[in-house]
């Protein structure tokens, strides 16, 4: 059996156990022995400078073989045939394989949610409800395209359902400090909590509010009583109650209401509801000029305001709108740049 086959068998058996340190020692040893052998057999042209020598080793090990440098003595040719090329090929294959393994492991860590995300000011989605979560993410992607990144954090043992589109983290629980740190809970600008178990939602919301009190936290509850409990402890958390029963009753009395609500909430179809802040530097106004300005300039309809005391739907035209108030409107698309001077 040739030395090359013996080396390949040894490499296959010990590749995974070969540490980076040992691989470096092998490369150094191979380089030193090659230099010594070529020097002994008189191949001065191959070792006349460190650059020429390393260039020749790399070209030989990678099987490129430009032919601009080659052994000229008989002994030199035997050294290259029996040691330089076989040893170089083996080490080159080991090095390339090790680098590839590192990149594959890194990719798998991200796919399995074991890697820390490297984003800030992102939207963190906690919970996995299969198609409902995918629909939620698709709507967020439509709204946040080119703006905030989306990070999905789940408890089930699954892989990233949208690789390349969202960052992904798996956590044993949504109160696990290390796992939540990997999801960037302390740097998220918005945290959306949607779980099938309300108790998990409650504990996750309390944990997130403690870790990141500046984030906009939204929590979806099936049981409205728990949302009241959360609001008592975390007044800044926005609780989203289940409205399925209410929509069912409304549609029974006013046919078509469910379709209307669906269109107002959908980011892909028809008119949608949006919110914007009336600039803090703007002069105080009233609803009337804002209502007319939104309609004339942007084909949008102003439907509500929030001056800090809760949302006021369909406010009267003479209602004051102070700087800093939140304005809600309906439009075909979000108005990215509002010229407030034309709306007041």
From TrEMBL:
List the GO biological process terms: monoatomic ion transmembrane transport; potassium ion transport
The protein here is known as Potassium channel protein
Q: Name one GO cellular component term.
A: plasma membrane
The annotated topology with respect to the bilayer is: Multi-pass membrane protein
> Which SUPFAM superfamilies does the UniProt record give?
NAD(P)-binding Rossmann-fold domains, Voltage-gated potassium channels
User: Where primarily located?
Assistant: membrane
- Membrane-crossing ranges are 23-41, 81-107
One Pfam family, please name it: Ion_trans_2
Which first-to-last residue range defines the signal peptide?
none
Top-level taxon in the UniProt lineage: Bacteria
Q: Where is the RCK N-terminal domain?
A: 133-231
Keywords in alphabetical order: Ion channel, Ion transport, Membrane, Transmembrane, Transmembrane helix, Transport
Q: Where in the cell is it found?
A: Cell membrane
Chain ranges of the Potassium channel domain: 25-103
Q: Would the keyword Transferase be found if you checked this record's keyword annotation?
A: no
